[in-house]
Specification:
Helix 3 runs parallel beside helix 6. The chain has 15 helices and no strands. It has a single domain, classed as Glycosyltransferase (Alpha/alpha barrel), CATH 1.50.10. It is globular, with a radius of gyration of 19 Å. The protein is mainly α and 335 residues long. This is DUF2891 domain-containing protein. It comes from Kribbella alba.
């Protein structure tokens, strides 16, 4: 079976290439007048590469994880140099100010990855991470304040299988918040998770996926709820939410990707990876002997076997993000 350590050199190479690639760039910026036409690097001195802001953030996260957990498998000095170039107090201060000035920018997906990056830096065993801890604190502060305010004012979750998915972002926020000791953030995310999803029943998983998903709304919700329900309550909740898991009538087969280098259809390649990751995580949340465990594990393996060969295509629009989810699908730690 393929392991993270085996893939670490390749994934580090991809991430470093992404950080060094400024264009093409999918810039999401609200222009206020004819003169408001800055370059991506001017707007985002830390996260201006890797095709888009959120992918740049989680490529930084991936490099922090790799240099922390597998320093002997990667070019640690090259990774540290790349991170030193971007994770500076001045650059991250600009990023924090931008988020505060544009409070819907990258909400919630990019926010969640920014908080995970802060957690990865804070908990890194690599001695170089000490240089980045204080620098990233203002960004984490901004994300926490924006997230708590957003959740306070939000009436309903977003259930699509793309970046706006609420359950996925809350999962990342909870893990990052717990790792960082940000209790207010965790409490706000947990309260909304329970309010929005606790009473969900009979989810029609057979309706998934839609044509541009890279997340399963059902599995993202189930993965969130394992974080906020007790170990005694969770198995019953999952049975009510996805009652077909052990009856064989809930499809858990990998998705065929006919046009992987299309920017949107290529999301389905990521869907196979995120499903593999989440299915594996769900299996560990169930008690030993639960009949759903082997079903979930077998489905995770099928998705992983299908997805891994396509993680590296040589096409930047395709390769700028998948390595992060491949790392997680292979069992790499989130925090």
């Amino acid at each position: 079976m393929t392991t993270v350590s085996e893939q670490a050199p390749q994934y580090a190479k991809i991430a470093l290439h992404n950080l060094a690639t400024d264009f093409p760039q999918h810039l999401d910026h609200l222009c206020l007048d004819a003169g408001d036409n800055p370059s991506p690097r001017e707007l985002h001195p830390a996260f201006h590469s890797s095709f888009d802001w959120h992918s740049c953030v989680h490529m930084h996260w991936l490099l922090v994880r790799l240099v922390s957990d597998w320093p002997d498998a990667v070019d640690a000095e090259q990774i540290r140099a790349a991170l030193d170039e971007n994770l500076t107090p001045s650059a991250l201060g600009v990023e924090a100010a931008y988020l505060r000035g544009a409070p819907s920018f990258e909400r919630p997906y990019g926010w969640a990855w920014a908080m995970l990056l802060a957690a990865a830096v804070a908990n890194s065993s690599d001695p170089a991470a000490k240089r980045w801890v204080d620098a990233i604190e203002p960004l984490a502060d901004a994300v926490e304040e924006l997230t708590v305010d957003w959740l306070r004012q939000s009436a309903l979750p977003v259930r699509h299988g793309v970046h706006s998915n609420t359950a996925f972002a809350l999962s990342l926020m909870i893990d990052a918040g717990r790792a960082l000791g940000r209790d207010e953030l965790v409490a706000a995310c947990r309260a909304k998770a329970l309010a929005w999803f606790r009473d969900d029943r009979d989810y029609p998983l057979r309706w998934e996926p839609s044509g541009e998903d890279f997340l399963s709304p059902a599995l993202s919700e189930a993965d969130l709820m394992r974080r906020v329900l007790s170990s005694e309550e969770y198995p019953g909740w999952l049975d009510a939410f996805l009652p077909g898991l052990t009856r064989g009538d809930t499809p858990l087969e990998p998705v065929a990707v006919r046009y992987p280098t299309d920017g949107r259809q290529g999301h389905l390649q990521g869907l196979n990876l995120t499903r593999a990751w989440q299915l594996s995580e769900l299996s560990t949340a169930l008690p030993a002997g639960d009949p759903r465990q082997p079903v979930l594990r077998a489905a995770a393996e099928r998705h992983l076997d299908t997805a891994l060969p396509g993680v590296v295509s040589g096409d930047f629009v395709h390769d700028h993000w998948l390595a992060t989810f491949a790392y997680l699908a292979l069992g790499g730690p989130l925090v």
